[in-house]
Specification:
The protein has 248 residues and is an alpha/beta fold. The chain contains six helices and 14 strands. The strands form four sheets. Strands 5-4-1-13-14 form a five-stranded mixed β-sheet, with helices on one face. A five-stranded mixed β-sheet has the order 6-7-10-12-11, with no helix packed on it. Strands 2-3 form a two-stranded antiparallel sheet. Helix 3 crosses helix 5. The radius of gyration is 17 Å and the shape is globular. Asymmetrically hydrolyzes Ap4p to yield AMP and ATP.
Length: 248
């Protein structure tokens, strides 16, 4: 099994298309395929903040649900958009407001179609993916070794939001424990969620959210090759959005 795990896209549709071409995919009609049968895996947070969240959502729906040529796990932004589409009261902030603004420019028929597609995509998705053939687990914010195989509420919170402490830093961002430092497994854990300037490999974990929407780059991690491929972002650079770690 050959996979290309793609980091947080956040509405950066043009960069996603460029990354697919860089990875050797060809565009067929309205989706991308690889002649060697490689499988793209989206690590969540498809939408919010970027310029084209609806187009990203439609492409991923087409590849995952319609063509069954890709896989997807949801992120926290996906969860919030899902709850918005269900009609729940959610705060339109931290990027959701940009997706909602895009959505509201559509006519009612297109809105209904987009809403139905995303609800289907989200409800069909596993909380995280165990890909035994690729020796990898794909989870939006990562997963502790002891949680693999579990799907309870505690695991869902971890997979969507990371190892949160319940506290916040001076900028209002959640403080998260560095769970990757303690991972001892032989299976790759591939995740995103926390923007870093360069892919961060600790033990057999790799964070591939390289902050495309914040002006850095969009990254894929290829298995079994164990290599990263990145393309530059077209968005303005916001350096304050990136996290650094003591080991760097």
């Amino acid at each position: 099994m050959k996979i290309d795990v793609i980091g947080d896209i956040h509405g950066c549709f043009d960069e996603l298309c460029t990354l697919f071409l860089e990875l050797g995919y060809k565009k067929e009609r309205n989706f991308f395929v690889h002649q060697d049968g490689r499988i793209p895996v989206f690590v969540g947070d498809l939408t919010d903040r970027g310029p084209a969240s609806i187009k990203v959502m439609e492409l991923v729906y087409e590849m995952v649900v319609q063509q069954k040529k890709a896989r997807y796990v949801p992120g926290n932004h996906c969860n919030k958009l899902y709850r918005f589409f269900l009609g729940n009261k959610v705060q339109q902030q931290h990027g959701l407001e940009t997706t909602v603004a895009e959505y509201e420019t559509l006519d009612k028929q297109k809105q209904a179609k987009v809403r139905k597609q995303f609800i289907t995509l989200y409800e069909d998705a596993p909380l995280y993916l165990q890909l035994l053939e690729a020796n990898a687990v794909i989870a939006h914010a990562g997963i502790k070794q002891s949680y693999i195989g579990r799907h309870d509420k505690k695991v869902k919170t971890f997979v969507l939001y990371g190892d949160i402490t319940g506290e916040f830093d001076e900028d209002g961002r959640p403080i998260r424990r560095d769970w990757a430092q303690h991972y001892q497994g032989n299976t790759w854990i591939v995740y995103g969620h926390t923007p870093v300037l360069n892919p961060r490999i600790i033990n057999r974990t790799i964070n591939i959210d390289t902050g495309c929407v914040f002006g850095n780059k969009l990254t894929a991690f290829r298995l079994p090759e164990e290599i990263t491929v990145s393309i530059p972002s077209e968005q303005p650079l916001l350096e304050e959005k990136f996290r650094s770690f003591p080991d760097e």
